[in-house]
Structure formats: structure tokens, C-alpha cells
Write a structure and sequence with these properties.
Elements lengths: L2 E6 L8 H17 L3 E6 L10 H7 L6 H6 L1 H12 L2 E7 L7 H10 L6 E3 L8 E3 L4 E8 L18 H7 L5 E9 L7 H22 L8
Parallel strand pairs: 1-2, 1-3, 3-6, 6-7
Antiparallel strand pairs: 4-5
Helix pairs in contact: 1-7
Length: about 220
């Protein structure tokens, strides 16, 4: 049984397209591989706390006080879920051309020194090194606009997918996969076509990943 950590970030519930893509991926994966062991962390419904000066002081402490341990308890829980997972599925809309604040808050809680990365200046210009073992990261997104590729109408405006891809290195990412729906605010035939293509792409992605060995978490 594959252990999947699913992160849902949309503030919407029933009407969320990104959540529906997540449901589609889990269903397609389970149909091919048997039921998955899914841990759901819904940051859209329950946003994580934003890190603070006290939180930063705590994670850099050599020995935490009881107060600091309490302050970082949710971070410890998030990281434990991450470490146990064999695959990460992130469903998220694009808000104002980037991540929802709740998803950024989750990343800030889990990208943590000596937990998900080490820091050593002896490595030169790349002192940060991820700790967790490799696992596929699947990003399933939705956005109201369209055309964020090279030479397209909104080139340079996508600060969501590049951010997800880069930050996912600290989740133990072995490979990154993205499927997205565009044109949501237009609600026209282009949107319907984009949604249909995304659902087919999710099905194909589940089939393709099923042919690759999933590395066990440690």
C-alpha cells in the first residue's frame, strides 16, 4: 500500500478544481495499485500558523525549552507526515500569481534546518542539502487566467509552479510532475477543454507513475 501525503490548499471546498484533480489522481492511482494509505493535510480549511521570531529562535536552538517545544509541535507533526510518505500530492489554486498563503505557511513549517535540510558552508555556494529520501511530487493546480508559457500572453506571471518545483527539493523530491487547469475565470469552451485535458493528463500520470518503483520512506 502506497503511503501518500496529500496537501490541499484551496480555500474553496465543493467548487475547488484543484481538489477535484486530487480526487481524480488518488482514484486513478488506487485503481491501478490498490487502495492508497492517504494522509490528508487540508491547509485550505485549517491554515498552519505563520512562523515568527520566537519560532525561528526555537528551531535554531541547541536545546529547546518546553515553551519552544510547544511552539514547534505542529512543525514536528508536519515533518513526521512528510517523512513517512512515499509520494506527495499537492492540490492548489493560483492566488494572485503565486501560492495561497496557507500553503506557503505549510512549506515554512516543514523546510527546517536539521529536519528536512542541513546547512554547511564547507559545501561552498550550495550549503543547503535536503535530508529526506527521494519521492515523487505531484502538483495539481488551477488558475483563473491562462498563457503563462514562453511567448504567451502572461509569460512570467506564474510564480506558483516554479516555486513549488524548487521548494519541493526539501520535501525529498525525486521527480516533479505538474498538471493544471486554466481559464477558470472565463468559464468558456477553452476552460472546459483545459479541464478535460487535465483529467486525461492526471489519468496518464497515474499510469506512468505506476510503472515506476516507489521508494519506501524511512
Amino acid at each position: 500500500m502506497t503511503r501518500i501525503l496529500r496537501i490541499d490548499a484551496s480555500a474553496r471546498t465543493v467548487r475547488s478544481l484543484s481538489r477535484k484533480l486530487g480526487d481524480r489522481f488518488i482514484a486513478d492511482w488506487s485503481a491501478l495499485n490498490g487502495p492508497a494509505d492517504v494522509t490528508l493535510r487540508d491547509v485550505g480549511k485549517t491554515p498552519p500558523p505563520i512562523i515568527s521570531d520566537d519560532w525561528i529562535a526555537a528551531v535554531f536552538s541547541q536545546e529547546m525549552t518546553p515553551e519552544q517545544q510547544a511552539l514547534t509541535r505542529i512543525s514536528d507533526e508536519f515533518i513526521a507526515e512528510l517523512a513517512e510518505a512515499e509520494m506527495i500530492v499537492i492540490t492548489t489554486p493560483m492566488y494572485n500569481y503565486g501560492m495561497p498563503a496557507a500553503l506557503k505557511a505549510w512549506f515554512d513549517q516543514v523546510v527546517r534546518i536539521n529536519k528536512t535540510f542541513t546547512f554547511d558552508l564547507a559545501r561552498g555556494d550550495r550549503p543547503l542539502e535536503p535530508i529526506l529520501p527521494g519521492k515523487p511530487v505531484v502538483a495539481l493546480t488551477s488558475c483563473g487566467e491562462f498563457g503563462f508559457g514562453p511567448g504567451e500572453l502572461n509569460e512570467g506571471g506564474d510564480n506558483l509552479v516554479p516555486h513549488l518545483r524548487f521548494a519541493s527539493r526539501y520535501l525529498g523530491m525525486s521527480d516533479f510532475h505538474h498538471v493544471g487547469i486554466e481559464y477558470q475565470e472565463f468559464g468558456d469552451a477553452r476552460h472546459e477543454r483545459s479541464a478535460a485535458e487535465a483529467n486525461r493528463a492526471v489519468r496518464d500520470l497515474a499510469a506512468r507513475l505506476s510503472q515506476q518503483p516507489v521508494r519506501a520512506a524511512v
